[in-house]
Write a structure and sequence with these properties.
The chain is of the alpha/beta class and about 375 residues long. The protein is built from 10 helices and 18 strands. It folds into 2 domains: about 230 residues, Alpha-Beta Barrel (TIM Barrel), CATH 3.20.20; about 120 residues, Beta Barrel (Elongation Factor Tu (Ef-tu), domain 3). Strands 1, 12, 13, 14, 15, 16, 17 and 18 form an 8-stranded mixed β-sheet that branches. It holds the Pfam family Ala_racemase_N.
C-alpha cells in the first residue's frame, strides 16, 4: 500500500531557519497548514514546533487545530463564504476579508456569541484574485470601523498564487502607504501589514522588503525549503520533508509502443508514440498509486534511472530500462513531490500518512 511520510527532524530544521530569519527582522509569521489537509498527527507535529499562529483555508482544519491546542491563534485565509460564517467565527480568531456584506455577517455572528472577531482586509495589488480595489479602500474601512464585534487588525495582499505576479519593493511600499493612510484618516492603529508569503522571503535576504511589512504567512518554504521567487531551494533547507512510497505490484518486460488503434485515454487525451521504438522493449513496474491520488506531472522517482511513462486512476507505470536495479514485486519505490503533488496526496484517503522516523522502508 502506498504511503507518504513526514520527517519531523527536517521539518523542525526548516522551521528554525525561518523563525531565526523573521526574528532577526522583527517580523511576526504564521504557519500555513492547508497542505496538511487537517491530518491530526501532522498538525500536532507542526504545533510541537512552537508555533503560535496557524493559517488555513478550511474551517474543518481550523476546528482540528483548536481541538489539539485551543491557545493557537487561528486564521482563516480566504474570504469567508456566507454559509461558513458561523464556523469561521467559532474556530477562526482572525479572517481575511474583501466583502463588506460578509464582514457584516461576521459582525452579527460575533455579537451573538459575545466575541470580538478580528479581520485583515486584503487589497488588490495586481494578482486579480481576492482584494478590495484601491480606489474603494477608504470607504470600505469607513464602513467596517462602525461594525460591532469586529476588530480590524491588519491590511494584506496576496500575490503569485494564481497568475504568478511577483511581489516587489514598489508593490509592498504601496501596501504600507495604504496602511498609513487609513491610520491617519481614521485615527486607528492597524498592527499588521500582512504582505509576505513564501514567495516574498527572498526580498528579506536581498534587503528589498519595506520596513512596514511585519507579518508573513508561510507554507511552501516551510515544507519544501522552496525559494518560490526563483523556483529553487534555499541553502541549508530541506526539500524532502515529505516523501511518497509506492509498492510495486507488477514487473514485466514489455514493448515500448502500444499495439493497436489508439483512441482517447482516461484523461481524454489521444497519445502519439515514436514508431521507431516499436520493436524495442523495456522493463516496466506498476505501482499502487494513480491519478486519483496524484497527477504524474507533480511527482517523480528519486532514482534517475526510473521514469514515469503513464498513469491511470489507481496505477502508475515506471520505465525501469533493463531493470539493472533488480526491482521485483513488493519493493517500495521512493518518489519526490512538488507542493501540488503533496497537497493531492494529503487529500487522498487512500494513502497512509506516517512519520519517516516510524518506518524503515526497503526502498528500491
Amino acid at each position: 500500500m502506498a504511503f507518504i511520510t513526514l520527517n519531523k527532524k527536517k521539518l523542525k530544521e526548516n522551521y528554525q531557519k525561518l523563525d531565526a530569519l523573521f526574528k532577526s527582522r522583527h517580523i511576526d509569521w504564521a504557519v500555513v497548514s492547508k497542505l496538511l489537509c487537517g491530518n491530526k498527527k501532522y498538525l500536532e507535529a507542526v504545533i510541537e514546533l512552537g508555533v503560535t499562529q496557524i493559517c488555513d483555508s478550511r474551517v474543518s482544519n481550523l476546528k482540528a487545530i483548536k481541538a489539539i491546542n485551543p491557545a493557537i491563534e487561528t486564521v482563516f485565509i480566504k474570504p469567508p463564504a456566507k454559509r461558513s460564517i458561523s464556523g469561521v467565527v467559532d474556530f477562526a480568531d482572525i479572517s481575511f476579508n474583501t466583502e463588506l456584506e460578509t464582514i457584516r455577517l461576521l459582525s452579527d455572528a460575533a455579537v451573538q456569541r459575545g466575541k470580538i472577531h478580528k479581520v485583515v482586509i486584503m487589497i488588490e495589488l495586481g494578482e486579480l484574485r481576492e482584494g478590495v480595489m484601491r480606489e474603494h479602500l477608504v470607504d470600505f474601512y469607513s464602513d467596517i470601523f462602525k461594525l460591532p464585534g469586529i476588530e480590524v487588525i491588519g491590511i494584506g495582499t496576496n500575490l503569485t498564487c494564481m497568475y504568478g505576479v511577483l511581489p516587489n519593493h514598489d508593490k509592498l511600499i504601496q501596501l504600507c502607504i495604504y496602511k498609513q493612510l487609513i491610520e491617519t484618516k481614521f485615527n486607528r492603529k492597524i498592527p499588521y501589514v500582512s504582505g509576505g508569503a513564501s514567495v516574498t522571503i527572498p526580498l528579506i535576504e536581498n534587503g528589498l522588503l519595506p520596513a512596514g511589512v511585519n507579518h508573513f504567512r508561510v507554507g511552501e518554504t516551510l515544507y519544501l525549503g522552496t525559494d518560490v521567487y526563483h523556483n529553487t531551494t534555499f541553502d541549508q533547507m530541506h526539500n524532502d520533508v515529505f516523501k511518497l512510497y509506492a509498492e510495486v505490484i507488477e514487473v514485466n518486460e514489455k514493448p515500448m509502443v502500444p499495439m493497436g488503434e489508439l483512441g482517447h485515454n482516461l484523461t481524454g487525451d489521444v497519445l502519439a508514440f515514436d514508431q521507431h521504438s516499436a520493436q524495442q522493449s523495456a522493463h516496466r513496474a506498476i505501482v499502487d498509486v494513480g491519478l486519483l491520488d496524484i497527477e504524474k506531472e507533480h511527482f517523480e522517482p528519486v532514482r534517475k534511472d526510473m521514469q514515469i511513462v503513464g498513469s491511470s486512476s489507481d496505477m502508475t507505470v515506471i520505465d525501469l530500462g533493463q531493470n539493472e536495479q533488480g526491482i521485483k514485486t513488493g519493493d517500495l519505490i521512493e518518489f519526490k513531490m512538488d507542493y501540488m503533488g503533496i497537497l493531492r496526496i494529503m487529500h487522498s484517503r487512500y494513502i497512509d500518512k506516517k512519520f519517516e522516523q516510524e518506518i524503515k522502508p526497503e526502498v528500491a
